[in-house]
Amino acid sequence: MTQPVLIRRACTLRVAATDHMHTALRLASHGVPPLPLRKGKVPFGNCPACAGNACGGRPNMKAPGPCTCPHPCHGWAAATTDPVVINAPTWARAWRDAAGVAYHPGGAGLTVVDLDNAEAIAWARGALPATRIVPTTRGEHWLYLGAMQSANAVRPGVDIKSTMAYARWLGPGAGALTALPDVVRALIVKEPTAIRPAAVTVPALVGGGQCPHRTPTYLDRGIAMAEQRITEASSAVHATVYRTFLAVLSTHGWCGCLTEAHTARLFTAAQTKGESPRHCTDAWTNARTALGM
């Protein structure tokens, strides 16, 4: 009585292993580097020869594919599009024990915005351009065409998975792929920490106390250049806004040249690029603090 049960169980395991391998080969044929996942949705650990990166691993761990070891080692860097590797005996054993298939988004020129809950999804619908969406067990993966640096917890319930990271393969999803937007790239930009200098020496005004910046042409040209710098930013918009605010304040912030109208022009340029009013206010405040104002 037990033999048929064992046979049925063995057949089920072989079918599952074959399904995972077939999925991996199909992904690889489309230029998407797959890797096996064990229980817990994590990659297989390194083999004894590669434990502690004794083998040297992948050079700088910046490209998909295994080291010279034939096992699926080194986490995301094991991902490969080579069908010979995917079909190798050591990988076959991994597929037999695998609980799922993952892939390296950056290796396929993709970025995954991993939305882990309903609040994160609501934020994405209001802040990000529409693109291909893959449902997950707890939320959604939004896929964009273009690679970038990966980062966790860029917002509550939001991770970025692209280069040097892996994402679970949960199907092709629905919707057309959209080019990776600046608003996603900006999520990983950290504003420089505002540090108040111990002491700030304000230079004496020139010309008997007359401010040299009160010439309308000089000030307007400076504000126009700042607006242009923000408007033409193609990436790292958040950092560009902060640095531009810092430059404007360092030149015009000490002598009362700036008016609310000038500040409004700068904030408008930043918000046109996708910055929120709160981010504009924070960047302005941090720039003032960094200069000791």
Question: How would you sum up this structure, described in words?
Answer:
It is a single chain. This protein is of the alpha+beta class and 293 residues long. The protein contains 9 helices and 10 strands. It has helices at 2-29, 83-86, 89-97, 118-127, 182-185, 216-231, 237-252, 260-272, 277-290, and strands spanning 34-38, 42-43, 100-103, 110-115, 132-135, 140-145, 151-155, 158-161, 167-168, 178-179. The strands form 2 sheets. Strands 4, 5, 6, 7, 8 and 10 form a 6-stranded mixed β-sheet that branches. A 4-stranded antiparallel β-sheet has the order 2-1-3-9. Helix 6 packs antiparallel against helix 7, helix 6 (216-231) packs parallel to helix 8 and helix 7 crosses helix 9 (277-290). The protein is elongated. The termini are far apart. The model is unreliable at 1-16 and 192-210 (pLDDT under 50).
Oligomeric category: single chain
Radius of gyration, CA atoms, in whole angstroms: 26 Å
* SSE arrangement, N to C: HEEHHEEHEEEEEEHHHHH
DSSP helix fraction: 25-40%
Q: What is the mean predicted local confidence, pLDDT?
A: 80
Unreliable parts? 1-16, 192-210
The main pleated sheet reads as:
6 strands, mixed
CA-CA gap between termini:
84 Å
Strands, total number: 10
**Tally of individual helices:** 9
Which structural category fits the helices and strands?
alpha+beta
Beta-strand percent range: 5-15%
Which geometry do the CA atoms define? elongated
